Amino acid sequence: MLLAKQAIAAQMDQAADMAELSVAQIQANNAMNRMTHMMAQSSRTMNRAQKSVNAEKTLLTLEQFKTQNEEYAMSNGIYQDAMTQSTSVQVSDDAVHELLGKLADDAGVQLNQELTAASTSKVDPVKEPGEPTAEEEDALQQRLRALRA
Questions:
Q1: Nearest-angstrom CA–CA distance, 82 and 74
Q2: How far apart are CA 53 and CA 30, in angstroms?
Q3: What pLDDT, on the 0 to 100 scale, is given for residue 44?
Q4: Average pLDDT over the chain, rounded to whole?
Q5: Maximum CA extent, the chain
Q6: pTM for the whole thing?
Q7: Are 137 and 145 in contact (CB under 8 A)?
Q8: In the chain, what are the domain boundaries?
Q9: What is each CA distance from 34 to 26, 37, 41, 42, 116, in whole angstroms?
Q10: pLDDT at 128 over 80
Q11: Which of 44, 49, 79, 136 could be stapled to 132 by a disulfide with Cβ–Cβ 3.0 to 4.6 Å?
Q12: How far does Cα 76 stand from its chain's mean position?
């Protein structure tokens, strides 16, 4: 009886192995079919794209773009050169240095006035937090007692 059960178990193991193999083969076949279908679609799309491409028109468009780009670069360079020349001619270096000197003097005078005003103000210096004095300690203790009551 034990041998019969073992034989049945062995047969069932073989059947399970065959089923797993069949499933793997079916999955591989399905994957191959999907890949073949996608490749066929890609091939058809590429054929349509090749038929609609006009090489002469593409080359003409590229040449026009190149020409327009070169013309723009040249006109932009001329414009920038003209702007640089017109702005640099209007103001001499001496005038620029004189203006910067005046601005620095004005800023120095203002800073000097602010420093003077700050040093003569009557604001008490800020005390560093440290240990309170005996009087402050008593006052704090009284406030604490009053709050607890």
A1: 12
A2: 35
A3: 93
A4: 83
A5: 118
A6: 0.33
A7: no
A8: 1-53, 64-111
A9: 12, 5, 11, 12, 86
A10: no
A11: 136
A12: 31
